[in-house]
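Sample intake — Small ribosomal subunit protein bS16c
Collected from: Ocimum basilicum
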Amino acid sequence: MVKLRLKRCGRKQRAVYRIVAIDVRSRREGKDLRKVGFYDPMKNQTYLNVPVILYFLEKGAQPTGTVQSLLKKAEVFKEFSSNQNQMKFN
């Protein structure tokens, strides 16, 4: 099973996170399948590669709680639901 979760980067006391698609059995710093975004909690900056995130969500990837809240703020789930509706009608 694939999850979208945070991978810690940066230096001591100055953490930044990559949002990655990773196998659920891997550890936090393990090998990821694909980097799909970036989150800096100090500057409150977020970069998301939305088409790739939508691809993984369509394939059944489950976001963790923190990643899910970041995706909600960026309104990715609205695009995901509209994309799902378009696929049903085609």
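Post-analysis note: The chain has one domain: 1-86.
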